[in-house]
Specification:
Helix content is 39%, strand content 14%. The chain is an alpha/beta fold and 390 residues long. A 7-stranded mixed beta sheet has the order 2-8-7-6-5-3-4, sandwiched between helices. Helix 8 links the parallel strand 5 and strand 6. Helix 3 runs antiparallel to helix 10, helix 4 packs parallel to helix 10 and helix 11 packs parallel to helix 13. The termini are far apart. Bound molecules: pyridoxal-5'-phosphate.
């Protein structure tokens, strides 16, 4: 009976010590509030288009209920290869693409392959909390390098290089970025690649928001500047472009020579992605361009109306996001955004993600996801603006 009954002390300490995302606490508090407009998570309110869902239903009806290819069904890998060719102008064979359980699983596999326990990876901050979470759950340490805030977010490559230590193994580079909307310029990408080459580091390029940009067909990518032997792994997902967050499907892009290793990692973690989900993804990628275009147009409308409504209050400062679907404003006179997020639930009926959850440079800010229907984004903006100017 005297045995320690704290279960957290019985498991590996670094796993017991994993931090809960600061977004979850606010979400748990507000999720059941009637009439609340949720802007806290990174997804919209559009259901997956019917033509995509239909492909999964047909797959189930055909009896595709068995184990399937570890790396993904050949048709999906071919569709990804064609898609990358069309949008990134790169001739990338299907063997470079490994289908995963969402972008999160691709990120975890990329970390597992490159950053070991006790080693370090660089992450640009403010940052999506799951980057540090993925590193910590693999026993690795996050070294944050802050972006410069201004009318746009910018990277100082010299600051990034100065953060490298003998333990650094990878640069986890997210552009377009969650939560800042930072979109790295081609020059910044070249600078990061040169730093990685000089120091022999891996780049884990999270380009999941690459198509969700305002003013260009896509964001600059490492694909534009890399050589075949550069050590780069790409994290991608179906979640955002095709409204498929709940399907849990994405891909890791890696040199085909690592195929055997990646298939082993998939075998020993998820043992593959359900075939019906892969059929839906194949159709999304091959036939979903009109939906992506429509999504970007709607996002731009929502971004603009929220930016305008909040700036008019005179209470916020922010860079207008060039990509992804979040505003990340600083609220004047509200330094404690954890407290503020709770108050906005109770007093305004809007759910936001508190800035402290995004690491250095995040406190004092709120992350607002504008991926909902324009009427809802407009109503949330009205509520927030009224409260800020009360
Ligand atoms: N990378 C970034 C920057 C994200 O914001 C997200 C989700 O919000 C992901 C990766 C992972 O997406 P998922 O696991 O839903 O595919």
């Amino acid at each position: 009976m005297t045995q320690d009954n704290n279960w957290l002390t019985r498991i590996r300490p670094e796993i017991g010590a994993l931090e809960t995302s600061g977004i979850v606490e606010v979400f748990d508090y507000g999720r059941r509030v009637q009439g609340l407009i949720p802007l806290w998570v990174g997804e919209g309110d559009s259901p997956t288009p019917a033509f995509i869902a239909q492909a999964a239903k047909a797959s189930i009806d055909r009896g595709e209920t068995f184990y399937t290819y570890q790396a993904g069904v050949p048709e999906l890998r071919a569709a990804i290869s064609a898609y990358m060719g069309a949008h990134y102008g790169a001739r990338l064979p299907p063997e470079r693409f490994f289908v995963t359980i969402g972008g999160m699983h691709a990120l975890d596999l990329a970390v597992k392959m490159t950053v070991g326990p006790g080693e370090e990876a660089i992450v640009l901050a403010p940052a999506w909390p799951n980057f540090a979470g993925a590193l910590a759950s693999n026993g690795a340490r996050t070294v944050f390098v802050e972006l410069d805030a201004g009318t746009t977010w910018r990277l100082d490559p010299a600051r990034l290089e100065a953060a490298i230590t003998p333990l650094t193994r990878a640069i986890l580079f997210n552009s377009p970025a969650n939560p800042t909307g930072y979109v790295a310029s081609r020059e910044e990408i070249v600078a990061v690649l040169e730093i990685a080459r000089r120091h022999g580091l891996w780049i884990i390029a999270d380009e999941i928001y690459g198509r969700l940009v305002y003013g260009a067909a896509r964001a600059p990518s490492f694909h534009d500047v890399m050589e075949p032997d550069d050590k780069i792994l790409f994290v991608q997902t179906l979640s955002k472009n095709w409204a498929m967050t709940g399907w849990r499907i994405g891909w890791l892009e890696a040199p085909p020579e690592l195929g055997g290793v990646i298939e082993n990692l998939i075998q020993y973690s998820t043992s593959g992605v359900p075939a019906p989900t892969q059929r839906a993804a194949t159709v999304a990628i091959a036939e979903g361009e009109a939906f992506v275009a429509q999504t970007v147009a709607r996002l731009k409308l929502c971004r603009d109306l929220m930016v305008e409504g909040l700036l008019a209050t005179g209470r916020v400062e922010m860079a207008i996001p060039e990509g992804a679907f979040y505003l990340f404003p600083k609220i004047r006179g509200e330094p404690d955004t954890r407290k503020l997020a709770f108050r906005l639930i109770d007093e305004v009926g809007v759910g936001v993600a508190p800035g402290f959850a995004f690491g250095p440079g995040g406190e004092g800010r709120l992350r607002l996801c504008f991926a909902s229907a324009p009427e809802r984004v407009a109503e949330a903006t009205r509520r927030l603006a009224a409260w800020l100017t009360r």
